[in-house]
Amino acid sequence: MNVFPEQPSLIKLDACLGSRDAAAITILLEALHLPYTLSLFTPHPFPPVHHAYFTDILPDGSRVDLNDVLEIASYLIDRYEQERRLVSYKPGTEEDFEVWRWVRLWSEEPLPAAPADQADVVRRMLHRYLLLEQRLQNQRSGGYLVGKKCTMADILYFPAIAAAESLGLDLEMFPELTAWFNRLWGLGAVRRGMEAVRLAIS
After folding, report:
1. Residue 61 DSSP SS3
2. What residues contact 199, with CB distance under 8 A and at least 6 apart?
3. Which of 30, 33, 51 has the alpha carbon at shortest distance from 42?
4. What is the mean pLDDT of the chain?
5. Which residue from 113, 116, 87 is spatially nearest to 100, judged by alpha carbons?
6. CATH classification (class only), 10-81
């Protein structure tokens, strides 16, 4: 079954330079092999701005406008990953439930882009690293957060984990997480997505 429209849509992303949310979106777009145009802007501390503005102009001329990373991810998967072969599992399966459980955990404890209390962010990141390390220890046969392929769960967590050194954290203290990080960084879609928004790897 062909999951793509007969005529390609036009996907545009206006993203904050170095945004972790924008990186997750560009990684997902790359993983789904979707063409897109990207415009980067420099963040301004006040007033606050969204990190990414997503537009999909469909073949019939209608358009979808979103600016929430989870809404964008859900839209892309539902529209362009109907066979659930690349970065998702079939709805209703145990794997699909697990993916979205990890996505919810990620969304319930967001990390601010410019934290006022760096020590608090470090504590929260350490908690997140420990949680992921424990999960990956129980996923030795798969190597990813859920199953044997990179999913939206992995994609959402990766940009924040990549910031380890900038927070003064040593990722090598977490061997399973380090192996997971290197595994994802070896994927072309992840590398291209991170480089697209100019998010440096520590």
Report:
1. coil
2. 18, 19, 20, 23, 159, 162
3. 51
4. 86
5. 87
6. alpha beta
Q: Which fold has domain 94-187?
A: Glutathione S-transferase Yfyf (Class Pi); Chain A, domain 2 (1.20.1050)
pLDDT in tens, 166-178: 778 888 899 999 9
What pLDDT, in 10s, does the model give residues 54-111? 999 999 899 999 999 999 999 999 999 999 999 999 999 999 999 999 999 888 766 6
Q: Which residues pair with 16 in a beta bridge?
A: 41
pTM: 0.88
10-81 and 94-187 agree in CATH topology: no
Contacts for 196 with CB less than 8 Å, ≥ 6 apart: 23, 26, 30, 38
Assess contact for 66 and 27: CB atoms under 8 A.
no
Q: Where are the domains of the chain?
A: 10-81, 94-187
Question: What confidence category does residue 35 fall into, taking pLDDT thresholds of 50, 70 and 90?
Answer: very high
